[in-house]
Amino acid sequence: MMSWVTSESFQTRACDSIDYDFRFDDAMANIGCTVYSFDPSMLDTPDHKRGDRVFFKRIGISDKDDDHFVPRVDEYVEKRRAVNGWPMRRLQTILDQLGHKKEQLTVLKMDIEGYEWDVTRDLLDSGILSSVPQFLVEWHLFKDFPPRERVPDAVETYFRLNDMGFQLFVTGIFYLGSATSLRMTAETFIPVLTGADKRALWTVPWWGRACDMESDWSRERYQCQDKRQMGNWPVCFDKNLIPQSNCLVYSFGIDYDFRFDDAMANIGCTVYSFDPSMLDTPDHKRGDRVFFKRMGISDKDDDHFVPRVDEYVEKRRAVNGWPMRRLQTILDQLGHKKEQLTVLKLDIEGYEWDVTRDLLDSGILSSVPQFLVEWHLFTDFPPRERVPDAVDTYFRF
Predict the structure, then answer these.
(1) Is the pLDDT of residue 5 over 60?
(2) What whole-number distance in Å separates Cα of residue 201 and Cα of residue 120?
(3) If exposure means fewest CB atoms within 10 Å of the residue's CB, which of 118, 122, 241, 345 is most exposed?
(4) Residues near 102 by Cβ (< 8 Å), separated by ≥ 6?
(5) Every domain of the chain and the residues it spans
């Protein structure tokens, strides 16, 4: 099964949807755990003791106590509807009813077909989850449940587990149910953690993490009152975010398109435009307020950087590579180290992840009022194994 350290003193209660499948419950009992199995949909199965260490209860877990809960109709409910609804209880109530309020709940497992979001939120709000060493959960996003407008809140709930100290384990198995229905599951056990402050949770694959980030994009946390289209980029002009004087803009990634740069210059900003791929364009002054520099931004200084071959590199390869600099180095070279960088724009074809991480690690980004960035996840770049780290960089904002 797995390498699992346990003893007779460990007690595990699996609060989950069983659907007549006791494999997990029996396996945990076989290594010495006491297991409580819960499923309100098994209408023909009364409360009973299953073997020496497994106890079945025909109740479900919820974010509120309810004797007559009416569930949404799915494949489980359709074949066995309860006339008077299902008995549902909060975890606190279940622990109290079973006399386990003062005992250590070792493992909490949930497979409750989309209701895990509300239950997990309740577990987090109550603080009860902080004392559970391992939390095993199957996340569901069906095509109609939870409702689409509630999905961002569900994703926020998921990320709150990280804040509580749960660590992600690379043991999850995920699959698509349909084009509009994402179902996430995990069918392998996880090892016991060492250290009282460690926590465990199933991880998500690279594309699951990308979906988390995409879901976050739908939530505008700051409502800009004065948004203007500056060339091909939107810029917020609220509360003097763009000063009348001493406005300094760095624009990385031009590809011969200076619309944004020229638009910012036209309102009085001094703009520095950077692109190491424009090999036929030397450093020059473009108009009164736009200065072009044929170098790029990176997370390290490098005079001979060799980029991955894409549509931009293919048509204009540099024999000796590209000159690349960290933002700190560029500010120093241009004499802007003590000046306020008003807007920082990045459109650098997948390298923004490493650059942004460097900007966050150095702390330099904390002084920039506006950060405009185009995020890229190409089919081969960054490598799939690095996508979770890239998404973590995004959520560090």
Answers:
(1) no
(2) 12
(3) 241
(4) none
(5) 22-211, 224-396
